[in-house]
Amino acid sequence: MRRAGLVVWGAHDIVAAMIRPGVTTGEIDAAVEAFFVEQGAVPLFKGVPGKVPFPAVCCISVNDEVVHGIPGKRVLLPGDIVSVDTGCSLAGWCGDSARTHPIGEVAPAVQRLLDCTSGVLDLAISLMGKRSRWSDVATEMATFVRDQGFTVVENFVGHGIGRKMHEDPQVPNFCSPSFRRNYDFNLEPGLVIAVEPMVNMGSKRVRALSDHWTQSTVDGQPSAHYEHTIAITESGPEVLTRAPSPGEIVRVE
Ligand code: MG
Ligand code: MG
Q1: What is the 225 CA–ligand 1 centroid distance (Å)?
Q2: Is residue 244 part of a domain?
Q3: What are the residues whose beta carbon lies below 5 Å from ligand 2 (ion)?
Q4: Whole-prediction pTM value?
Q5: How is residue 108 annotated by DSSP?
Q6: C-alpha 18 – ligand 2 centre gap (Å)
Q7: Does a structural domain hold residue 250?
Q8: Rounded CA separation 73/23 (Å)
């Protein structure tokens, strides 16, 4: 899973290097697809069944789009924020990760949204080494976001990951009495989960667009999304989709 995770990280590094005003979301997707081919990795998103099969290797969601945006002809503009989510399998094991990029200068409140969303993922990773139940991590995540005046999306959650991209358990970024009672799980060595907070500037509510995939905020306000695949080891949480030295493009033999 570490090797798959490093390929996903490498894909995100390619995205980070090319994302700028004037680039289309389709060009980003094509670059990631070419990288997966070069690495011998199998993209996990393309062909995912739905009313129409998902047509791309990345979900690319711009501004008020929360998740599951379809890459295409859309040209990125200064002030946009762009969430890129992608995953692959390598030798039968999966990795899944997402990041939101500011395009040029963004409004200060939008930058705070990005910092809050990456911050709440970092918080979750550190708490995974200190708490014994996911419900305690999720509760602190929701508090962290609420204290900054933003909202956690509740319609979509993280997931277990391994041989398949989506495995049990479900990994919400908030806690409810029903979750604590019925679905909570222990954080113990051997567990690997994809933690993926989606944070909205306004209402937490989302709606599907007519392309059957893209989810956007109901109020048109921006949304951010960060995700890592994280293993709990005997020595604590290990982020599988992050290279030991950030910024380096990873080539896996
Ligand atoms: Mg993902
Ligand atoms: Mg995921």
Answers
A1: 9
A2: no
A3: 96, 194, 196
A4: 0.95
A5: H
A6: 23
A7: no
A8: 9
